[in-house]
Amino acid sequence: MPKVLPTEDVRPLSEFRANAAAFVNQVRETRRPLILTQHGRSAAVLLDVKAYEDLVEHAELLHDIQLAEAQIAEGKYIEHADFKKYIFERLGI
Fold first, then answer.
1. What is the pTM of this model?
2. Given this model, what pLDDT does residue 6 score?
3. In b/e form, how buried is each residue of 62-91, taking b as 16+ CB within 10 angstroms?
């Protein structure tokens, strides 16, 4: 995801309400997130759909890795040779 440019990508919510279509176009074109502020504090982030999908996919992958590492630490795994033997038996090879 491209780096946020504070001079261009941080806007008050009131300005977003008045220019929503233009800001959506900006996010689509630049692929940079738009940070919306309310009362001078960050309140929300507008992302390009592809950037959002990439973030979700990345988070899911990291979660899967953490889960696998926890399972390995608990001894809940199958050695490669044993798994290979199991698969070949299931396939009748």
1. 0.70
2. 81
3. eeeeeeeeeeeeeeeeeeeeeeeeeeeeee
